[in-house]
């Protein structure tokens, strides 16, 4: 897959890592534009290829009363406005074949949630849109098994696939990342490490997923050192009051320093 083929993506000739970053869910236009403006400024300064991330709806929730979205079309239109305002590509999750067709009209990259990485019809529907397809590795899947997920995309006639590792279940309430999987999966497609979801602590008795955001820097640095092609980081200016995944998101004010450190590590990796 060539990054330069993603519409509106910048800084593809810098040999820097790819960044997918933004809020977990689109909560409204003002918050999305506020986050995008900050991240675009930082990534332009550091010359990082950047894709704005925001879920137009959250279909996979622990509790019935959990926030799921502000309305599909409303959220997708906000994603389009982010793209048009800041001249950046966007990515969002899809959950059904109908979602693939609808979301493809608004965003540049379609993301397959980890729990759905084996859903053949969904992957094929995403591939048929001609969009880049970012497949999150299921928490229950081996790195080697992701070869077959990628094949479902490529054999549909779409060569634009990305794999994102978001950790593997460790017991019932924790996640771990096996960094041995990064070089394994890079044989199939570019590999992104989902830093923030890898630090989730799911299946809490409260029905609200926990997390360990203090380790975001550690996880991100390890990912770049291990050779990841990109990073996925959810960020918000007020994680404590975010409507989804606040427990493991990065405070937006901390992003610039972290990315500066990661660029320095990437330069060392490139030299080696």
TrEMBL record:
Domain of life where this protein originates: Bacteria
Subcellular location: Cytoplasm
Recorded GO MF terms: 3-deoxy-8-phosphooctulonate synthase activity
Sequence ranges assigned to domain DAHP synthetase I/KDSA in this UniProt record: 8-262
Main location: cytoplasm
Gene3D superfamilies: Aldolase class I
Catalytic activity line of the entry: D-arabinose 5-phosphate + phosphoenolpyruvate + H2O = 3-deoxy-alpha-D-manno-2-octulosonate-8-phosphate + phosphate
Alphabetically ordered keywords of this record: Cytoplasm, Transferase
Pfam families linked to this entry: DAHP_synth_1 (PF00793)
Pathways involved: Carbohydrate biosynthesis; 3-deoxy-D-manno-octulosonate biosynthesis; 3-deoxy-D-manno-octulosonate from D-ribulose 5-phosphate: step 2/3; Bacterial outer membrane biogenesis; lipopolysaccharide biosynthesis
EC number(s) recorded for this UniProt protein: 2.5.1.55
Family: Belongs to the KdsA family.
NCBIfam families assigned to the protein according to its UniProt record, in alphabetical order: KDO8P_synth, PRK05198.1
The name this protein goes by in its record: 3-deoxy-8-phosphooctulonate synthase
Organism: Croceitalea vernalis
């Amino acid at each position: 897959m060539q990054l330069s083929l993603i519409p509106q993506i910048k800084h593809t000739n810098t040999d820097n890592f790819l960044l997918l970053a933004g809020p977990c869910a689109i909560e409204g236009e003002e918050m999305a534009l506020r986050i995008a403006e900050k991240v675009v400024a930082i990534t332009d300064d550091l010359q990082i290829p950047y894709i704005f991330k925001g879920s137009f709806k959250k279909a996979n929730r622990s509790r019935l009363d959990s926030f799921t979205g502000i309305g599909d079309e409303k959220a997708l239109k906000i994603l389009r406005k982010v793209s048009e305002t800041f001249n950046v590509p966007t990515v969002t999750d899809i959950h059904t074949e109908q979602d693939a067709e609808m979301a493809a009209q608004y965003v540049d990259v379609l993301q397959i949630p980890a729990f759905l990485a084996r859903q053949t019809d969904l992957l094929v529907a995403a591939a048929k849109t001609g969009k880049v397809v970012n497949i999150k590795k299921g928490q229950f899947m081996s790195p080697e098994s992701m070869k077959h997920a990628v094949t479902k995309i490529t054999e549909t006639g779409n060569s634009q696939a990305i794999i994102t590792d978001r950790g593997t279940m460790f017991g019932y309430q924790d996640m771990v990342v096996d960094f041995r999987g990064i070089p394994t999966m890079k044989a199939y497609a570019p590999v992104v490490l989902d830093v923030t979801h890898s630090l989730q602590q799911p299946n809490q008795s409260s029905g609200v997923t926990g997390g360990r955001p203090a380790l975001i820097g550690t996880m991100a640095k390890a990912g770049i050192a291990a050779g990841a092609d990109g990073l996925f980081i959810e960020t918000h200016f007020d994680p404590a009051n975010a409507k989804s995944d606040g427990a493991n998101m990065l405070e937006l004010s901390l992003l610039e320093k972290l990315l500066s450190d990661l660029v320095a590590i990437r330069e060392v990796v490139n030299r080696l």
